[in-house]
Specification:
5-stranded antiparallel beta sheet, 9 helices, 15 strands, about 25% strand, Papain-like_cys_pep_sf, Arylamine_NAT_domain_sf, acetyltransferase activity
Length: about 325
């Protein structure tokens, strides 16, 4: 594994300013303590301030995503941009580690179209290669989490601030079948599955994250993963494919998402896919705007996601399959 270089206190304070985070109970170091309460607040603040987006693939001169640690800090914190999974989760994991959280980063398969089936008597799912970065955080259980105060053990939590319109708005403890809320009235749960194979294998069960938009909606698959720690090299290879291969969904589409709190305090999701801008609130999706021209999309990106593209950035879109009329 690569050597970890923590953020300096000044860098962390700049990140907190970027996500509008106010410390409530700083530790003796002057930074927030590594607690579940602070983790929850950091996650929701991050997702409100920093969009999930793949704009660099399209709106740039080199169409290259750099996931080196300092490049992520410069882009997201200093230049106030967003990023996709390797960027958002890469930066956030480094922030958490710098604050003293025990964690490791892993990989997941995106299985949004997959169905769980029974194979050899076991729940099974067909999964593509693991091209999504996740974080597993280890925290002591509390009475609220169901732990015995005299015999507490660490619990594992999935943390993911880079999964677009289905991103978890809070950490989720790795407990099977326990339903937890997302952005109202969304729900999430874990089930254990095997990965489909042409050869019978005694592979250990994987964790499948499922979600539904409403309590009466059907469950849908999101990501499937195991608890193997992954390295920066793993993400480097996956990032190269996802950001450059013509068959990658990120190369084929302009994609953005962020959390937004309305004036009445309700948390919503703002979603952009190519020429469509939508708002998801209370389980209903509303069309905000359909773009016909490039300047309309560029304006919406600034108004709804806080990203102002330069003329050079905008020029990088010319000739691409997802470009709109000028």
């Amino acid at each position: 594994m690569a050597t970890f270089t923590p953020f300096t206190q000044d860098e962390l304070l700049a990140y907190f300013d970027r996500i509008n985070y106010s410390q409530r109970d700083p530790s003796p170091s002057g930074l927030p303590a590594p607690t579940i309460e602070n983790l929850c607040q950091l996650i929701v603040n991050h997702q409100q301030a920093i969009p999930f987006e793949n704009l660099t693939i399209h709106y740039s001169s080199n169409h290259t995503i750099n996931i080196e640690p300092q490049a992520l800090y410069n882009k997201i914190v200093l230049n106030r941009r967003g990023g996709y999974c390797f960027e958002n989760n890469g930066l956030f994991a480094r922030v958490l580690r710098s604050l003293g959280y025990k964690l490791w980063t892993g990989a997941a398969s995106v299985v949004l179209e997959a169905k769980v089936e029974v194979q050899d008597g076991q729940p099974t799912i067909k999964a593509p290669p693991m091209t999504h970065q996740i974080t597993i955080v280890q925290l002591p259980t509390t009475a609220q989490d169901g732990g015995d105060s005299e015999d507490r053990q660490d619990a594992l939590w999935l943390v993911d601030v880079g999964f677009g319109g289905q991103t978890l708005p809070a950490p989720k403890m790795l407990v099977e079948h326990e339903i937890t809320p997302g952005v109202r009235p969304e729900q999430f749960r874990f089930t254990r599955v095997h990965l489909a194979s042409n050869v019978r294998q005694e592979n250990p069960p994987y964790w499948l994250l499922e979600y539904r938009y409403k309590p009466d909606s059907p469950w849908m698959s999101a990501v499937v993963f195991d608890l193997t720690e992954r390295s920066h090299t793993d993400y480097y290879v996956a990032n190269q494919y996802m950001s450059t291969n013509p068959e990658s969904k990120f190369v084929k589409n302009v994609m953005m998402a962020r959390l937004r709190r309305d004036e009445d305090g309700v948390l919503t999701r703002v979603l952009l896919l190519n020429d469509i801008l939508k708002l998801r609130r209370d389980g209903e999706t509303k069309l905000i705007q359909q773009f016909e021209r490039e300047h309309e999309r560029v304006k919406a990106i600034e108004e709804w996601f806080g990203i102002k593209l330069s003329e050079e950035d905008i020029g990088g879109m010319k000739g691409r399959s997802v470009a709109l009329m000028e």
